[in-house]
Here is the input.
Amino acid sequence: MHVPDGFLDLTTSVATAGIAVGAVGLALRRAGREVEAGPAMPGLVSAFVFAVQMVNFPVGAGTSGHLMGGALAAALVGPATAVVCLTVVLLVQALLFADGGLTALGTNVLLIAVVTVLVGHAVTRGAQRVLPRRPGSVALAAGLGGLVSVPVAALVFVGLYAVGGAVPVDLGHLAAAMLGWHLLIGVGEAVITGAVLSAVLASRPDLVRVARPSGRRLVVVGADGARTAVAASPSAEDAGAPVPLRRPAGAALLVCLVVAGGVSLLASGSPDGLEHVAAAVGFEGAASSSAVSSGPLADYAVAGVPGPLAVTIAGVAGVAATSLVGAGAVRLVARRRAHG
Here is the structure.
């Protein structure tokens, strides 16, 4: 649900940019409290969300959807850090790939990096309080968070369009269409979120932040050899034993590269939920090209390179950029906190 330039008027776009800047600034301040084992995990989460967002899945009637990743990221690294991670993804997509408008960047950050994270995390925590206390409940709770977060973000877009939409439309029709399609996309979000967390919980439950109980600590050995005490999962064999991150980080990065560079070639070519609704309701023509639409990687293509290979190159470049920028942003936050 990447909003292009032109769907919202300039006043609304400026307002959403201001809200987004404030929200991301607050997230950066609070992310320092969540950064326990260094920047590797946030960098990998940024890269993974970018990679999976390249894989649109069909939801019917010539429409597709893709992971937004708010609930998943919040479950792995905490809500504040998740806002930072998804903002990095959106920045890279907008600036390198012309995916989402530049004047609409604040809108996209608000919808995807703020709304889906906060709603997804709130629902996840609420579900954890009522579900049985067992490992499988964590994935189920986060899946529910993902399911709810997507249609909520869609309805927030409807609210923004009601305030500053470029073309007059029937708002009731717009709301019904956005809610209907994004409920279906939310099901895909729930399945992906639950599946990814189940896999991580099965191998390294200590890396899932929402699964960690309070009180227990373990020592994590980062890629640079530094040791950091972090909260441990119930399955940790020894709360004082070093737990290396290099191997799972390497495996996770390889998965990101395979998804972005290979699996993305199988992505559905159908318009996503917002594009489909815009065409059906009558404001598709309001979209305008991004200012970077002539860039070397715009639309995940490379001039002079055949389509599939171009997508692979773009995917690998995107994974590298998001992982480095995501890790770098969190590293700066951690340093400021250490010297603050």
User: Anything to note?
Assistant: Residues 70 and 275 are 21 Å apart (CA to CA). Strands lie at 57-60, 63-65, 217-221, 227-231, 242-244.
